[in-house]
Design a protein that fits this description.
The structure is a homodimer of 324-residue chains. Chain A is α/β, with parallel strands linked by helices. In chain A, 44% of the residues lie in helices and 17% in strands. Chain A has 13 helices and eight strands. In chain A, helix 11 links the parallel strand 5 and strand 6. The first copy, chain A, is globular and about 65 Å long. At the A-B interface, helix 1, helix 9, strand 3, strand 4 and helix 10 of A face helix 1, helix 9, strand 3, strand 4 and helix 10 of B.
């Protein structure tokens, strides 16, 4: 009996010291201000045992959009840059693409014509570059591409253009026993190969758009083949649907940056008890990009409902991690 | 510096003692024999740091079928019993069901006629009883039903007819840092309301069949409405697809009991490194049920590939937890 007591005391002491260390300076890249205060206040309230706003550990679910919330989405979505590079890489096997839109425009780097083709053209590019191989093969293609591709303006790998303050926020939440999820309009299979190394978010906590896959036996070995058919679009009204399908309970905190995140923030904040919603507002043309386009409804609702809005220029000491 | 060393030593001592305690008798309801030895051997090998078969913690994913693997599936799937009871409960609002199959047969308890209607009849029953309400409302209906429904033979709540040896196996794996998932042909929303309390498996680790849901605003409040349309069937070839969609990496251990689990076991064991596959064989007519129907292909492949087969009668000291 005394031995168990001793172990319990050791554990309690060790845990108390380790959480003291974590609490010392949880968000070093955040300037003091309303946004940082709101985050810390929320976390303290939901983790204070016996407090009115206490949330048990299993319900501490936090969801993060990816493009524009955790990493840069300008001048174009990273996944679109990937698709365009893949069209070029695959072009020798597809001589017909030289005269066929949207492939011709993609090969010529003529983004205006690609964009003019609308959703249908984008879908064609995605299917031609994301389907027709096994899931393992696709993950490898993504990893290989990310290992060499660089952002056209910052000339750094895309996985280094993640927001340092958001990395700290993810770590801060996890040190307070939150489970952190990505809920992105981007492809689930495009994010999973690197999300664990870059964000500390394992594949099973990544939610995104998907194409269909099919189980097959090839030479006696089971494979999953990616089919050129949309399975699910995890954007706008789709985000609460994706959250429910994958997580099965309502998050208590949601982080986004655009109108595509609005329904996710509505769904999260409509739950009972204390909830937290945050929008990253891109205000820093010098260090990153400045734009409101595609975010005006979300920003309006944030103001109306008192959601936290991060002003990148004002609130973040640095944008990206130091170069390695 | 010395303080950190002391903490590290305390933690190491506490952890060593606690894992000793857990290792002492991890599977008390399992008889000594090949099945228990195979489980313990696998777990020891993948958790031995520096060993040839060591698996890092994040990759310790174990998947469990539910019906017939974690709880009883005879004389009928629990979810079918639920659907039939719901037809009775909803009948007053549907006078047309008195003359309309498969509802007429369901109301009369004429399972033979329901079964004769095949998949189409079952689908009609499922849609009439599982769709048309919000996700929150459906979860409540499931909880309310489970609180009063009883198994026709054992006269106990269904959630008490889970297999005690499998509860111990789930706990044993988790104490060795496995993440345990359900991957069931049953409805994902039918399992999530109780899986955490009964199995210790949180909603985000439950994979199952699903119908479509839709995000809507009702009186300014966001809701998710369940639609009478199949979204995904998580059975047979669907199980590896469901695993990939939800978990995003290949499990290292899979547990099932029927042909519906065959592809999940194939997919799991085809991965690199040490893998584990187990089938629960229903051999105990006295304490549970004895049947091979629907499991013959899986049992054949288990024999061919040397997968572990549990003989319920021989390997399990008890089947169900003690009555509360």
């Amino acid at each position: 009996m005394r031995r168990y007591l001793l172990i319990a005391m050791m554990l309690a002491a060790a845990l108390a010291l380790s959480s003291l260390a974590a609490a010392a300076e949880p968000l070093p890249s955040w300037n003091e201000g309303q946004a940082k205060r709101a985050i810390v206040d929320f976390v303290q309230r939901v983790t204070t045992t016996g407090g009115a706003d206490f949330v048990p550990v299993p319900e501490r679910i936090a969801v993060f959009d990816n493009d524009g919330t955790l990493w840069a989405e300008k001048p174009m979505y990273v996944q679109l840059a990937f698709a365009l590079d893949r069209v070029k890489a695959l072009a020798p096997e597809h001589p017909e693409w030289q005269d066929q839109q949207p492939f011709k425009a993609a090969l010529e780097g003529d983004l205006k014509t690609v964009a003019a083709g609308g959703e249908h053209a984008l879908l064609e590019l995605v299917m031609a570059t994301h389907a027709g191989m096994t899931t393992d093969a696709f993950a490898q293609v993504v990893e290989d591409w990310l290992a060499t591709a660089k952002h056209p303006r910052f000339n750094r790998p895309y996985t280094e253009l993640v927001y340092q303050p958001m990395l700290e926020l993810l770590a801060y939440l996890r040190s307070n026993d939150f489970k952190t999820f990505i809920v992105s309009g981007g492809g689930i299979e495009f994010m999973r190969p690197w999300a664990e190394a870059v964000y500390g978010i394992p594949p099973e906590q990544v939610v995104g758009s998907s194409i269909q896959t099919k189980f097959e036996m090839r030479d006696g070995e089971p494979v999953l083949v990616r089919l050129p058919m949309i399975d699910f679009i995890d954007d706008k009204e789709g985000k609460p649907v994706g959250i429910h399908a994958h997580i099965g309970r309502r998050p208590i905190a949601a982080f986004g940056n655009s109108d595509g995140d609005l329904q996710m923030l509505q769904w999260t904040t409509a739950g009972e008890g204390l909830r937290f919603a945050l929008l990253v507002h891109h205000t820093d043309a010098k260090r990153e990009f400045a734009y409101d386009k595609g975010a005006t409804s979300a920003l309006n609702e944030a103001e109306m409902k008192g959601w936290t809005v991060v002003d990148m220029k004002r609130d973040w000491k640095v944008i990206y991690p130091s170069a390695k």
